[in-house]
Each structure stands twice: as structure tokens, then as C-alpha cells.
Design a protein that fits this description.
This protein is mainly α. It has 13 helices and no strands. It is globular and about 55 Å long. It starts with a helix and ends with a helix.
């Protein structure tokens, strides 16, 4: 019951965003404006502030870090095996890999972690965001470029990671946590105000984005992505985390972040590489709608 009470407000904010489009207050494409605010300002400041108030020893926990790297690695192998089994086209395999590991850990995961586990939970969730972003933009895109017959550029991938605002927020937050940085009261209040705006704005934007989405004909690939993101990854995370000795809130935050639907960033990558845009956009819509049920189910099971 507690999980349902937490999830209902989240999806009501989705609904508010969708309603704003249905009433023609905004267009669905206006969600881009809101997500840009969250990406460049809201989440980097939220992450920095939470990490600055979290003991460095906690976020540097080795079993926690290994769990949230090995789970992504295991899912990459799973997707490659599924791709071989279903004889997916070579060009699409790289996109499957990226989309299979790039969940909506920021726009959905951070606000939900805060609702479920408070500020301490957001500290751990922020580290997972960093791991997912770095892993997806390095390993994932390397697979994407390899299977799309492009030449992988280490320099390009490294630069895309280094200039990512969320990664910058994580690095600065870890440094601030390590040196126990104390902010002047006006600056601290500013950070708190912006941080509190990030979650609601992100959820509202997702609701806007979902309106008017058309489902692609290739239901098989959509189903694979939804199953991997919503069910396989959290189960793998639970297994690895339990084996490595994780328990309590740290394990639950890891599982929650693993249960997120596909991130909208996957559509941006699909457009850039001109690979399965219709399938990826459909999988984002379908997985987000299914997550209303699957997140509650996964958190209830674990």
C-alpha cells in the first residue's frame, strides 16, 4: 500500500502534463523546453546538493558500485544473446544495447527515489545516474557505432561524457562531499529551491511527451526492450546485489533505478543514427505506461 501511495502522485503529475497538452495549453513538442531546463540546471543542481550532504564513504561503497556496473554488463550480454536468437538486423543491435541499459534513471528515478527513500536515497540514486550515463555513453554508444558500421571515436565519446551536465554535477558533488564543503546560507537556499523544482518539472514533461505517441508495427522489438528494462534488469540487480552483500535501502534504491522505463535520450540517439526511430519512440511510450504497474510490482517483490 505504501508503494502505491508513493506512485500515485508521480503518475498524477504525468497526467497533469498530458492534460496540459490535451487542453492545448502546451504542445507535446514543448516538453523539450522543460526537459532542457531539468537537464542543464535542475538535475545537476539536485545531484550536487544531495551528494554534498551525503557522506563520501557511503556513495563510494564498492559492492554498491559493482552491483550497478555488473547489472548493466549482464544485460548487454542478455541483449546480444536475444538479438542472435531473434536474428535482429546488425544495424539495430547496437540500438537495442543502448536502449536496454539506458533507463529513465534521472527524470523518473531521482524524484521517485526521493519520495521513497528521502534525501539519503537520492544520494545513492544520483551515483547510479552517473554510472548509467557514463556506461551508456561509452560502452553503449561504442556498440551502437560498431554495429552501425561507423568508426568508434574514443575522443568523441569521452568528450560527450565530460560535457554532460549531470556528470559534471556528480563530479562536483563528490568533490564537495569529500572535502565537506559548507555553502553560505543564501547559496544553500538557492540550491534547495532549484533542486525541488527538478523532479516535478521532469515528471510533467514526461506526461507531455506521452501524448500523441503512435505505436510502431514491430511489436516484437518493443516487447524485448520493455521486458529487459522493466523486469530483467531489476531481477539481475537483485541477484547481483544480494550476492555482493547489499541490503536495505541501498539495495532497494538500486532495484528501483533498474526498474525505470526507457529514457527519452534513446530517441535522440535513434534519430542521430537514423536507426529504428519509430520502434524506440514506441518503446519509450509503452514502457513508461507499463511502469505504472511494473515498478510497484518489482518494489513489492523485493
Amino acid at each position: 500500500m505504501e508503494i502505491i501511495e508513493i506512485l500515485i502522485p508521480v503518475f498524477l503529475v504525468f497526467g497533469l502534463g498530458a492534460l496540459s497538452v490535451a487542453l492545448k495549453i502546451f504542445k507535446s513538442t514543448d516538453s523539450y523546453i522543460f526537459t532542457r531546463y531539468v537537464f542543464y540546471f535542475g538535475f545537476p543542481i539536485l545531484i550536487f546538493n544531495r551528494l554534498n550532504h551525503t557522506a563520501f564513504e557511503k556513495v563510494a561503497d564498492l559492492p554498491f558500485l559493482l552491483t550497478n556496473i555488473l547489472n548493466l554488463s549482464a544485460v548487454v550480454l542478455l541483449i546480444l544473446a536475444i538479438s542472435w536468437l531473434f536474428k535482429c538486423k546488425r544495424k539495430f543491435i547496437g540500438m537495442l544495447v543502448v536502449a536496454g541499459i539506458f533507463g529513465n534513471v534521472a527524470y523518473m528515478g531521482l524524484p521517485m527515489s526521493e519520495l521513497m527513500f528521502g534525501s539519503e536515497g537520492v544520494g545513492y540514486a544520483s551515483i547510479i545516474v552517473g554510472l548509467v550515463v557514463v556506461f551508456s555513453l561509452s560502452v553503449g554508444i561504442s556498440f551502437l557505432e560498431y554495429f552501425s558500421s561507423s568508426k568508434p571515436s574514443v575522443k568523441t565519446v569521452a568528450w560527450s561524457i565530460a560535457k554532460n551536465p549531470i556528470v559534471i554535477g556528480i563530479v562536483l558533488g563528490l568533490i564537495a562531499s569529500a572535502v565537506k564543503l559548507e555553502m553560505p546560507t543564501p547559496i544553500e537556499n538557492f540550491l534547495v529551491i532549484v533542486a525541488k523544482s527538478a523532479g516535478p518539472v521532469a515528471l510533467f514533461a514526461i506526461g507531455m511527451f506521452l501524448v500523441g505517441g503512435k505505436i510502431a508495427k514491430d511489436k516484437k522489438k518493443i516487447a524485448i526492450l520493455c521486458l529487459v528494462n522493466l523486469l530483467a534488469l531489476p531481477f539481475v540487480t537483485f541477484g547481483i546485489g544480494t550476492y555482493l552483500g547489499l541490503s536495505g535501502m541501498i539495495l532497494k534504491v538500486s532495484i528501483l533505478q533498474s526498474a525505470m522505463p526507457l529514457a527519452a535520450t534513446n530517441f535522440v540517439l535513434a534519430q542521430k543514427y537514423k536507426i529504428g526511430e519509430d520502434i524506440i519512440s514506441s518503446a519509450i511510450v509503452v514502457s513508461t505506461l507499463l511502469s505504472i504497474v511494473t515498478i510497484g510490482l518489482v518494489m513489492w517483490l523485493f
